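REQUEST ID: PR-0412
SUBMITTED BY: lab tech R.K.
PRIORITY: routine
TASK: structure prediction, single protein chain
INPUT:
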Amino acid sequence: MAKTDTYTEAIGRRKTASARVRIMPAKSISVIVNDKPAEQYFPLKGMVTTLLAPMQTVGGIYAVTARVSGGGHKAQAEAVRHGISRAIIALIPEQRKDLKVKGFLKRDPRAKERKKFGLKAARRAPQWSKR
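STATUS: complete
OUTPUT:
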């Protein structure tokens, strides 16, 4: 069975979350994350707004499917946003400037710093007592 719809695929990441995103031009915006509607998958409405931001910026209407793993809900929403932005660039390279100005193409590299031996946390030293 041949697939008639063509899609554009991209990968988005944030912290330890990774999202494989596929977008297809559509008549209405629909976002499916891990086989659930985005409104059902993400606990807060603001997270859905976050991942729809690239489409609102460029004014495109796409059907989005995403596979997300790792991280928390917020990091996953931002990973999907990053993936959608990259997929839009692959589809329409002229939109790069608009998305770059908004910061949607930047992979946010901030992550938790590892704990070091001899310390209680990454930088927190044991309490010091003079006597």
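NOTES: The longest helix spans residues 73-91.
REVIEWED BY: pending
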